[in-house]
Each structure stands twice: as C-alpha cells, then as structure tokens.
Amino acid sequence: MKDTGFFAEFRKFIARGNVLDMAVGIAAGAAFTAIVNSFVNDIINPIIGLLIGGIDFSNLQIVLRPATETSEAVAIRYGMFINSIISFIIIAFALFLMVKAFNAAKENAKKKEEEAKAAAPAAPAAPPADIQLLTEIRDLLKSSK
C-alpha cells in the first residue's frame, strides 16, 4: 500500500526534529509545573501566610451558599487563584531567565563568528588591469600552440 495523502503528510510532520523537540519541551514543562506548584504551595505560601498573620491562601474563599445535607457549598476560591498567579509569575520568570541565557549564548556565538571573520586574512587584491590583460594574452598564446 502506497503511503500518500493525509497520513503520509502527518508521518512526515511527526518525524521532523522540531516536533520531537517540542514534545520533549512539553514533557519537561509539565514536570517543571509540578515542581513550581509544589514550591508555591509548600514553601512560598506558608512564608507569605506567616508574614500576613497565618493565613493559608488555598483556604481563602467567599462562600456564596453554605453546604447543606443535600448539596455542597458554593464558593469563590480566590485563594487558589492567588496560588495560580504566584505559580505563573515564577514560571514566567524562569522562562525569562532561560530565554535571556539562550539569547546571550547566541549573541556570544555571533560575536565569536564575527571576530573569526575579521581575523581571517583578506582576499588578495585583484591585479591591475594591465597585468590582467597581459595574463589573458599569455594564456591565449599558450592555448593557441
């Protein structure tokens, strides 16, 4: 069976290196998110809670309807939202540092490449027109023999 059409195009897309790199990045990002969430929930929030009087952010909420025997409470859990904002800021900062380091490394490589080009010997200057003409005449005479 010949491999054409949609599935062939999909296979070609998946086999590209960029897609594999992206998949690795997503997996690493998911693991990094778990670490950041733990950092925020287990380290940052208790410290902030201690500083502002022992408040646990994850439990902050506005109860719209209290729980009854037949239904659960309806509440706006803004403490969890605060946790998410702190997590986002930490992740954004970490990504900023990674991009900054990547750009600095890229700029360093570019500078080294430019320095190498500048250090390379320049191509010899073209001979004057009369010398070029004499060279052409010599070559023509050699080829006519």
Produce the secondary structure layout.
Layout: H1 6-15, H2 17-51, E1 62-65, E2 74-76, H3 78-119, H4 129-144
Antiparallel strand pairs: 1-2
Helix pairs in contact: 2-3
- What pattern of helices and strands is seen along the backbone? HHEEHH
Mean pLDDT, to the nearest integer, reads 82
Q: Helical segment tally?
A: 4
In total, how many domains does the architecture comprise? Answer: 1
Return the CATH topology: Non-ribosomal Peptide Synthetase Peptidyl Carrier Protein, Chain A
- Level-1 CATH class name: Mainly Alpha
Alpha-carbon distance between the two ends:
64 Å
In the sheet with the most strands, the strands line up as 1-2
| Overall outline | elongated
The percent range for helix content is over 70%
Radius of gyration: 33 Å
**Which regions have little confidence, pLDDT < 50, spanning 5+ residues?**
none
Beta-strand portion reads under 5%
Main structural class: mainly alpha
Per CATH, which architecture?
Orthogonal Bundle
Q: What is the CATH H-level superfamily?
A: Large-conductance mechanosensitive channel, MscL, domain 1
Main sheet attributes: strand count, strand direction, barrel closure: 2 strands, antiparallel
Number of strands: 2
